Amino acid sequence: MITLVRGGRAVGGAAALALGLTGMGLVVGPAAVADSVMTATTTVNVRAGASTGTPVVGVLQPGTSVTATGPSMNGWTKITFNGRAAYVSTAYLRSAASTTATTLSSSTSTTATTLEAVNVRTGPDLASSVWTVFPKGKTITVTGVTQNGYHQLTDGHWVSSAWITVVSTLAIPVATPTPSPTAAPTTATPTPSPTTAAKAPTPTAPVVLPPVTGQVRATAALMIRTTSGSDFVNLGDVPAGTILNVTGVVTNGVAQIVYEGAVRWVNARYIVPVTTVGPVSNSASIIVSFGLSQVGKAYVWGGNGPNAYDCSGLTVAAYKAAGISIPRTTYSQWTVGTPVSLANLQPGDLVFYYSGISHVGIYIGNGRIVHAANPTSGVTTASVTSMPFQGGRRVV
Fold first, then answer.
1. CA torsion sign, 134 to 140 to 145 to 150?
2. Does residue 95 have a pLDDT over 60?
3. What is the phi/psi pair of residue 93, to 5°?
4. Which of 48, 55, 299, 377 is the most exposed place for a label (fewest CB within 10 A)?
């Protein structure tokens, strides 16, 4: 069985097993027609041919849409993937038209409040990238469009419906015509007797989730798992820098989280506690996320990326990702922004080391930094006091 590995973690096991069952004729999926849009229902391999014996050329994440280029045949749907013909098991596709979506009146404006720190995504599913993170208690406005358990924001981004509460709905009233004097009187509807009144539906018991004990930040692209055991299903990855709510439970090296309204699990090696619970500026969040996304890349003196950096090259690239220009050399960066003490550092601050200011990194919270360390360690994270600390500078 072919197992795909992303970031050192196997993600293809469940999908490959499911594809094997499809090849045996035990699973039947929806038929596709040419030019119909289909959506992946789970993590599924994209293959070069219409069988499990052909090479894997890619992976579709849950919610990813593709266009069928022909009708389904023998349990496989032909698609175009990265400019070439490829095949996906029909059992793990559904017609995009069947995606649950509810649209309220376009004249309705809804105000909501976030219940916890929540990821803001570019699309209504876990496969969509995280654009930013809203803090707990933020007031937002949604359009009235919901899809796959997500609410659409007025700027086109999406948040999980499980982590917001509607505050008010302002709808444009529709005028009711006044009946003319000659109109026949309206007959009053009789009040139903107690024996004929319809019974109110029994409310569904709410899902009871374990209490959240804190928040962590992903230090690398992190798989969301359904269980802590080897029988887990991969629900897709969240990018480095994503803030997650944890319960404090760790089993088999994976940490329990409350994610998108359900109990999920993530690898405990790739999370660090978040000490700053309040809002972090969008620019600082981008800087930290960029720095963490480069962990594992090489150190090269004078390196400006994207495959290798030196210490000040990494900070320049991280700030550039947030639309901010800073000087190229470490000592010149020491002159920008405002001074910050060790005790008052915030995520996104520049941190400087050694007498003469010869090394720089980015503070990521919880007493840690991300930096291009040296040719041996490359881009990595470390304690903020692992080197002789000289001071910090706040630019954002």
1. positive
2. yes
3. -125, 150
4. 55
Quote the CA–CA distance of 12 and 43 in Å, as a whole number.
7
Torsion of CA 353, 354, 357, 362, to 10 degrees: -10
Distances (CA, A) of 230 to 265, 286, 333, 356: 12, 33, 47, 51
Active-site pick, 151, 157, 225, 359: 359
pLDDT at 138: 85
CA-to-CA distance for 324 and 282, rounded, in angstroms?
A: 12
Give residue for tokens 């509807």.
189
Q: Is 151 a catalytic residue?
A: no
| Mean pLDDT, residues 75-82 | 84
Q: Which residues of 63-73 are buried (b: 16+ CB within 10 A; e: fewer)?
A: bbebebeeebe
Q: How do beta strands 308-309 and 298-299 pair? A: parallel
d(C-alpha 352, C-alpha 288), whole Å: 16
Render pLDDT for 322-371 as a digit per residue (tens, 0 to 9). 899 999 999 999 999 999 999 888 889 999 999 999 999 999 887 889 99
Name residue, tokens 């919270």.
365
Mean pLDDT value across the chain: 75
Identified catalytic residue from 78, 157, 368, 371: 371
Catalytic (active site) residue 311: yes
Q: Which of 130, 286, 311, 351 is catalytic?
A: 311
Could you read off the pLDDT of 206-240 as tens digits, one per residue?
A: 557 788 777 777 777 889 998 988 888 888 888 77
